[in-house]
Design goal:
Blueprint (H helix, E strand, L loop, with lengths): L6 E6 L3 H10 L8 E6 L7 H9 L4 E6 L10 H19 L6 E5 L5 H17 L14
Parallel strand pairs: 1-2, 1-3, 3-4
Helix pairs in contact: 1-4
Length: about 140
């Protein structure tokens, strides 16, 4: 039996994190395996941070940000999209499925869309075997 997956969601504070918070307020649930990390902007997510998340045991990582043209830091979400594309190529070279990384966009008012995207991502991760990079549980390795 596969262990419970570990999924990290890096969410821009202004839009995606607000949508996740609104989902909670509305009692719109999403997969409990998802851990949300609030960030100022998706453009602030460095590739090394995403790779470190996988190294530390994440089975999947998503980056959720503002809609195109709505980024509060002007072009942070566009920079993030480019980084995700580049990171998918790195994951492939490392032998990890590119399906383990995704970026999606929502506005602060899109609680249901956030739930739908996060839930679909979690379902995709659950269908994969545990990450081969994931450290063995309980051994401190």
């Amino acid at each position: 039996m596969n262990p419970e997956p570990r999924i990290i969601g890096f969410c821009c504070y202004t839009c995606a994190y607000a949508a996740a918070d609104l989902a909670g307020s509305m009692r719109v649930t999403y997969d409990p395996a998802i851990t949300i990390v609030a960030i100022p902007c998706t453009g602030a997510v460095e590739p090394g941070v995403v790779l470190a998340a996988f190294e530390e045991g994440a089975d999947g990582v998503f980056i959720a940000g503002c809609l195109d043209g709505e980024c509060h830091y002007k072009s942070g979400n566009l920079r993030a999209k480019e980084r995700v594309r580049a990171l998918c190529a790195v994951l492939e070279k490392l032998g990890l499925e590119t399906a383990r990384l995704e970026m999606f966009q929502v506005s602060a008012a899109m609680a249901t869309r956030f739930r739908d995207k996060a839930t679909a991502f979690a379902a995709r991760i659950r269908a994969l075997p545990p990450s081969p990079v994931r450290r063995r549980e309980g051994r401190g390795e």
